[in-house]
Input
Amino acid sequence: MTELSDELLVAYVDGQLVREQTRAVDKVLEHDDVIARRVEALKDAHGRFESAFEAILAGELIEILAAPMLPPKVKRKRGNGLAKIGIAVVGIGIALAVLVGGYGRSLLLSACSVGMTGSVAAMQSPPQSALGAH
Amino acid sequence: MLPRLRRFADVLLGEKKEGKALLRRALLLMLAEHHRYQRGTPLDRWAFTEIYRLWLAELRDHADPLRQAKSSEEDFDRLFPKDRGADFDAFTATFLGQLPPPQRSTLLLVYGEGFDYEDAARVLDSDADTVQSRLIRASASLADRLSSGTPARTNASAAIETLYPERPQQYDHDRAQ
Output
């Protein structure tokens, strides 16, 4: 019977050995029933640990999925602020374009001219009080 | 990742309620000290490390840490789903419930999470040799029990520790944790 430690066999079962060591253990297992049974028992233990931890994880998942879901937060409508800003910008742009494009200028000029002629006329015509006095 | 973190905390504490509380404290700590996270570190490994570190720090504050670290079999049994199928392995569940928390966590990281020995050692603030010796002791003990058909009713950790009397240093290291 070959003497192989549990340390080596556990590393073999866990796949932690290098290839040469794995081959060497494989060869021993071919002709040593005692070691082969021990390896089977260790593999069984390994598999049972894995299954137990998987079962615990499944329990966690079930618990998380079963937890009451909070209702989704209703998003407060903040209005389409971006559209409003866009409309405002376009409006200001149009207003400026109209102003610079002539309409506003002519209006301003006519207003100025009316104002000026009015004042000149007022300067040329004598005041009513003066006429009344004569 | 959350179910995995919950499983780790629950297995470490050996019960759900305390496990949840530990996880919550650890997550808050991680948020508060997120600057300690190093880029390139897998997030799950960092989270496992922080949970374990916090557990260890809190355990050290207790007057009797070893007593505090023990959990009841009933509490550990509740970690498994209520509607267990026929394939539920009560034998292994009882065995795991009787192990000391560091040993249980080692088994979880290697066999449950698929970490290699080095990664598991990093999480547990230990070294790869200690991880390996814990795995050997637990695997050999369960294999022995399965072979003999002895139900795991006795104190498994005590029985495991006698399996490798030639490793007193690692045994001491485990007990210290």
Q: What stands out?
A: Residues 33-66 of chain A form the longest helix (34 residues). Chain A has two domains: 6-66, 92-126.
